[in-house]
Structures are given as structure tokens and as C-alpha cells.
Task: inverse folding
């Protein structure tokens, strides 16, 4: 029972707004001590896992490219491109991006897009530009940008599990193997399809509602 | 063989550059500089530091982050002459290279580690895009690092939170947290109720994912607690034939939790910083109305399959 103290540390740490980095280390220490591990063993376990998961942080190498292109007006170009297209709305643009993200993630191409690579330099400014036209200049930028980031996440999460060799599929296969159940990745990945369709319908509907919200903004402003 | 070693060499160089600039440029930012220097050390020398050495490196990162001295981005100087649609070319080079390389590098398994083909290809794409920018825009050799550092300062310590949570998961696993949660969950389910068991499994996946910031950490726990003993062998009586939907839909219920937690920093907090949202939880707020109905869908779907 005592080992659950680490979970309480995380919950409390967040509620009391301590630095999350600090909360995570304290939680690891409390959990390990409660399980009777000695502090050096806890430190070594933590350090090894940190070193093994460095690939998660490698994505930041795209920032120098994005930074330079933005200095020369990439975001402004993205906005101008959308401004010239007729009939493009923030909602429809994001529905298109949702479909693109789900399909590519389903093919295992998860790093093709993402928040640093595509959302910040391209998708968010494009959606913002379209929304500005729709709402007649009334500011909804915060909400539209947040929806752009949300669309990337939904597309990634509910597309990637259709791919056979993604980490979560391999993890499930490994865990079930431990119970003596042998499954092929294909058997698992077909079961990701119904939820992928539901995610597209639910989030897509919300994006089209966003268009109606923006139009209402324009009417109430006029 | 070219694999993660190449990716880490480039990533280490980028962070070493960020660190150097944070010392050299005014205003000097020593906290940011030490944070980046530690990350560069991890990328370059992590494999030689040993487990305890890496643990100490993590403690140093936490000390810098918790000191509250790291400062966020700053406006860059005057904008140079803006350019036209050609700016899309280097931006799209990165995803294009990742796509082409993923396919092409699989044909060269002796030269390039096939498991890391996408990351290697992405890194090649980044280097090619930087070379293109330097040759075309002539912004000066240090410009990519300067502009990259500006964006990195915005992200701040949240950059390594996902790595921290993965490591916390390792400590949880070693301490047997999963078994304890499993025993508790077994008490909470009304006996004989298939819907109760399915709902507890789906909600448990989502809740545990919210705490750990990662569905990967939640899955072994909930599989041991409810998935295998109750849904597979117990009340559900689904039998081994239903192992695939139980596992796959459970994992997706966990992903719904990922959409609703600040612990999933790289998906929820980092984008809020990158997009300069005033509300740090703006992305989470935008996701909850999608996550909740989708979670309900997953629970009902699994119930329908097992019934």
C-alpha cells in the first residue's frame, strides 16, 4: 500500500503548483523508499531510464530551422497563402489536417508532422488567418491556436495504433506474451480502426462547430 | 552502423550551441545555459556516465529547473527583408526527408539501423534544411542556433519532462506499484458485472494515464489488475480470443487520458509554450470535449464486443 504514496505526491505536487520536475523526482524517491529500495538503487534506475529515453527529446533539433524561417516571414507567408484561398475556413482546414495526420500516423509516419515541425510554423498561423477572416477580425486567436494543437494530438493518438510496429502495439504484444497469449501485431492494430473513425467524427464535428462559432462572432460584432 | 548515435551527436551539438549562446549573448542567462549544457552532456556522453552518473545529471537538471531562474524567450532584433513562398521549401524538406528516408533506409539495413530509420532521416532532413537556409538566406552561420535557442527558451524545462516521466515509470515498475493498484481495482468492481468491469478498466486506463502522463505506464498495470484476470478469464468470459480487443481498446482509452493531463507535457504543455498561448492549459481545455465522448465510445465498444 505504501508504494502508492508516490501517486499522492504527484497529485498533491500538481495541485500545490510545485515545479513538475521536482515533483517527479520526489515521487520516485518516495515510491522507491516505500518499496524498500536504497536511494542509490533508485537514483541508478531513474538515471538509466532517463538515458534510454533520450530519443524523446531529439525532436528539438528542428527548432533552428523553424526559427530561421520564421525570422524571414514563414508564418506571414502561411497566413497570406490561406488568405488568398476562397472557401477555406479554420474548421475545414483543421479537418483536412486531422485526416492527413491520422492517415500518415497509421502508416507509421508519426514524425512527419508535430507541434514543432508543422503546427507552430504552418497549421496554427494558417488556421488563425482563416479564422480572422471568418470572424471579421474579432480575436479568437487563442482558441483557434489551441484547437490546432489539439487536432495534431487527436490525429496522432488515434492514427498511430493502426500501424503494426508502433511502440504501443509492441508493448501490448509484450505484456500479453507475459501471460502466455501470443498475438500478431495485425490482430491488435485492426481494433484501433473503430476508435480512429470515432475520433475523426467527434473531433471533426467539433471543428465544424468552430466554424459556426466564428460566423456567430462576426454577426454579433457587426 | 548509423542509428541513434548520429541523431544524439546532432542533438548534443544543438544544445551545446544553445548553451554557448546563452553565456555569450546579452543578457547573459546562466540558468538556461547550464540546463542546455546538461542536456548536451546527456546526448553526447550519456552512455559513458553510468546509471548513477545519469541519475546525478538528472538531479542537476531538476535543481536548475526548480531554482526558478530559467527565463523565457526574448524578442529577436529587427526583421530582415521577408521572403516569398520559397520559405515553404526548407520547412517541407524535413517531413519529406523523414517520409522518403523511412522508406529508403529500410533498404540499407547494414548501413542504417532499420529501427531508427525515421529519426535518422528526420535528422538528415534538418541538416539539409539548415544548409539550404544558410546558402539561400545568408543569415550568418550562428543564426540557426540563435533562432533555435529563442524557441527553446520558450519551451524551457518542460522539454525534458517526458523523459522524466518515463524514468518515473521505471521506478514505479521496480517498486511494484502495478500489483498494488491491481489488487485495489479488484475490490472496487461489483462482482459479476461485465459492464462494471469494462468501465473500471477503461476509466482506470484513462485515470492512471493522467497521473503518469503516459498510457504505456498504465497498460501493464491495468492489464494485470482487470484486463487479464477479470475481462479475459473471469466475468467477461471472453476467453483468449478476445485478448486483442481488450488490449487495443484499453490502450486507446488510455490515450483519451493523455489528452486531459498536464503530465503529458510534450503533447499538452510544450505546444502551449510553442504557440505562445496565454493559458498554459489551453490545449488541454480544447481537448477535453473530444476526449470524454471518445472515452465513452471506447468503453461501450469493448462492452459490445465482450457481451
Result:
Amino acid at each position: 500500500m505504501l508504494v502508492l504514496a508516490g501517486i499522492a505526491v504527484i497529485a498533491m505536487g500538481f495541485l500545490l503548483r510545485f515545479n513538475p520536475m521536482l515533483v517527479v523526482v520526489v515521487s520516485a524517491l518516495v515510491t522507491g523508499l516505500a518499496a524498500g529500495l536504497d536511494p542509490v538503487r533508485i537514483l541508478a534506475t531513474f538515471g538509466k531510464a532517463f538515458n534510454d529515453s533520450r530519443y524523446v527529446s531529439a525532436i528539438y533539433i528542428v527548432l533552428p530551422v523553424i526559427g530561421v524561417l520564421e525570422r524571414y516571414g514563414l508564418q506571414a507567408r502561411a497566413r497570406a497563402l490561406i488568405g488568398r484561398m476562397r472557401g477555406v475556413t479554420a474548421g475545414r482546414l483543421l479537418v483536412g489536417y486531422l485526416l492527413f495526420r491520422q492517415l500518415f500516423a497509421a502508416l507509421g509516419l508519426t514524425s512527419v508532422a508535430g507541434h514543432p515541425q508543422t503546427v507552430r510554423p504552418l497549421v496554427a498561423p494558417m488556421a488563425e488567418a482563416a479564422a480572422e477572416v471568418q470572424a471579421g477580425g474579432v480575436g479568437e486567436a487563442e482558441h483557434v491556436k489551441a484547437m490546432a494543437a489539439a487536432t495534431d494530438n487527436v490525429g496522432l493518438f488515434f492514427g498511430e495504433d493502426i500501424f503494426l510496429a508502433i511502440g504501443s502495439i509492441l508493448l501490448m504484444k509484450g505484456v500479453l506474451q507475459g501471460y502466455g497469449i501470443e498475438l500478431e501485431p495485425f490482430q491488435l492494430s485492426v481494433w484501433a480502426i473503430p476508435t480512429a473513425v470515432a475520433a475523426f467524427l467527434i473531433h471533426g464535428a467539433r471543428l465544424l462547430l468552430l466554424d459556426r462559432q466564428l460566423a456567430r462572432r462576426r454577426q454579433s460584432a457587426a | 552502423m548509423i542509428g541513434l548515435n548520429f541523431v544524439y551527436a546532432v542533438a548534443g551539438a544543438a544544445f551545446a550551441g544553445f548553451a554557448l549562446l546563452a553565456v555569450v549573448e546579452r543578457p547573459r542567462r546562466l540558468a538556461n545555459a547550464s540546463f542546455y549544457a546538461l542536456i548536451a552532456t546527456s546526448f553526447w556522453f550519456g552512455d559513458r556516465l553510468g546509471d548513477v552518473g545519469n541519475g546525478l545529471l538528472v538531479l542537476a537538471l531538476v535543481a536548475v529547473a526548480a531554482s526558478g531562474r530559467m527565463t523565457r524567450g526574448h524578442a529577436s532584433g529587427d526583421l530582415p527583408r521577408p521572403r516569398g513562398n520559397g520559405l515553404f521549401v526548407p520547412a517541407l524538406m524535413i517531413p519529406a526527408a523523414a517520409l522518403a528516408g523511412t522508406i529508403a533506409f529500410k533498404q540499407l539495413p547494414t548501413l542504417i539501423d532499420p529501427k531508427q530509420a525515421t529519426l535518422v532521416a528526420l535528422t538528415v532532413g534538418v541538416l539539409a534544411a539548415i544548409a539550404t537556409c544558410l546558402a539561400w538566406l545568408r543569415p550568418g552561420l550562428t543564426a540557426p542556433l540563435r533562432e533555435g535557442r529563442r524557441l527553446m527558451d520558450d519551451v524551457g524545462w518542460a522539454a525534458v519532462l517526458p523523459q522524466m516521466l518515463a524514468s518515473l515509470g521505471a521506478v514505479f515498475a521496480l517498486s511494484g506499484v502495478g500489483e498494488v493498484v491491481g489488487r485495489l481495482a479488484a475490490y472496487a468492481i461489483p462482482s459479476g458485472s461485465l459492464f462494471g468491469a469494462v468501465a473500471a478498466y477503461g476509466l482506470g486506463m484513462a485515470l492512471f494515464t493522467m497521473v503518469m502522463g503516459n498510457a504505456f505506464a498504465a497498460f501493464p498495470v491495468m492489464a494485470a489488475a482487470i484486463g487479464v484476470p477479470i475481462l479475459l478469464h473471469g466475468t467477461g468470459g471472453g476467453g483468449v480470443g478476445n485478448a486483442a480487443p481488450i488490449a487495443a481498446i484499453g490502450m486507446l482509452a488510455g490515450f483519451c487520458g493523455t489528452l486531459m493531463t498536464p503530465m503529458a507535457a510534450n503533447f499538452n504543455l510544450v505546444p502551449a509554450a510553442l504557440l505562445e498561448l496565454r493559458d498554459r492549459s489551453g490545449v488541454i481545455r480544447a481537448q477535453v470535449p473530444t476526449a470524454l465522448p471518445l472515452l465513452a465510445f471506447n468503453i461501450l465498444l469493448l462492452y459490445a464486443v465482450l457481451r
Remarks:
- Residues 213 and 264 of chain B are 4 Å apart (CA to CA).
- Chain B has a mean pLDDT of 88.
